[in-house]
Amino acid sequence: xxxxxxxxxxxxxxxxxxxxxxxxxxxxxxxxxxxxxxxxxxxxxxxxxxxxxxxxxxxxxxxxxxxxxxxxxxxxxxxxxxxxxxxxxxxxxxxxxxxxxxxxxxxxxxxxxxxxxxxxxxxxxxxxxxxxxxxxxxxxxxxxxxxxxxxxxxxxxxxxxxxxxxxxxxxxxxxxxxxxxxxxxxxxxxxxxxxxxxxxxxxxxxxxxxxxxxxxxxxxxxxxxxxxxxxxxxxxxxxxxxxxxxxxxxxxxxxxxxxxxxxxxxxxxxxxxxxxxxxxxxxxxxxxxxxxxxxxxxxxxxxxxxxxxxxxxxxxxxxxxxxxxxxxxxxxxxxxxxxxxxxx
Length: 344
Hints:
CATH class: Alpha Beta
Structural class: alpha/beta
Strand order of the largest sheet: 1-2-4-3-5-6-7-8-9
Helix content: 25-40%
Strand content: 15-25%
Mean pLDDT: 85
Distance between the termini: 22 Å
Number of domains: 1
């Protein structure tokens, strides 16, 4: 199906794009300016592998813990040195367009968070083509329920996802916890450079492995449903984050999802992180002073008053509806990295 056959012309920006432009918009490596596309992917993988190796060698941990019966349903749990009865837990869902990536190369934030007294859980799920998107959402839901059941006295559960993982984390805003027999103590969401409306993905090469139908995409698009959903805990915060050098489509997805959260009953914030790209934004989680590793009773205090930050308010709903979420000079497709590579 051609993009031009979808909906009404001008309905949303991506529907006016050529197939090539849409493909580039959803290839984050094409927008990296500090490195070539292939080098950016290689560097990202190397940093993740090294961070995981270091975490496993130096931190108290339980590795490959099953949260279900499936072969891919495992978590790695890393603990702070000092034991505490009510540890906060930080769950991370890796990216990779639901078809690449692994918990075994995703422990970026373990060192800085465990040093702050936070337990970190890196979640594995069955990527495509083995797993369908519906299965991945179910697995992630069960991983959250597993942590709550295993550690019922936790000091709060914080969910963080990057790219496709941000989508999976966002789907937890819609989860029916009753069917899992537990209500997780959710205190915060960190949604980093995510995709929240999956329909554009259907018209890119990413869908070769995913095989999404329109019904699949709509059923698994939190952008379409979150405004009507009810927070499990009214104090739970949602932080939507995008990197300055993410593509315009990634900026649009994040900004519109933030706006949709504001239309509902969610306590949401939006932040564009300066001078980072789609991969660097996660690589920097290895740093102890990174704003995204500030987990605690008030994890969003670093964003107060920042130039590119926003919080839900009546003013947001009335006056910010047309605000563009990316600098004007990023509106055109990047020409720096035009070679087609991998799934990123």
